[in-house]
Amino acid sequence: MRRFRRLYIEILIQFVIALLLLLFVAFDKHSAHIHWHEIPFMANYVFAALIINYLLLPYYFYRKRYFLFAIYIIAVLSLIIIIEEFILEQVMFFDHRSEVFNPTGTLVEAIPILLILLAFNFARDATRKQRKIDELKHSMIESELDFLKGQINPHFMFNNLNNLYAYALESSPKTPKIILELSAIIRYMLYDCKDNKVLLEKEIDNIRSFVKLNELQFEGRGNISFNTKGSSNHKYIAPLILIVFVENAFKHSMSSQTEGILVDISLETNDNILQFKCVNSYTQQTNTRDIPGGIGLKNVITRLDMLYADGYKLSVDDTGTLYSVNLNIELNRLKE
Question: Which long-range contacts (CB under 8 A, 24 or more apart) does 176-180 make?
Answer without folding.
Answer: 177/216, 178/213, 178/216, 178/217
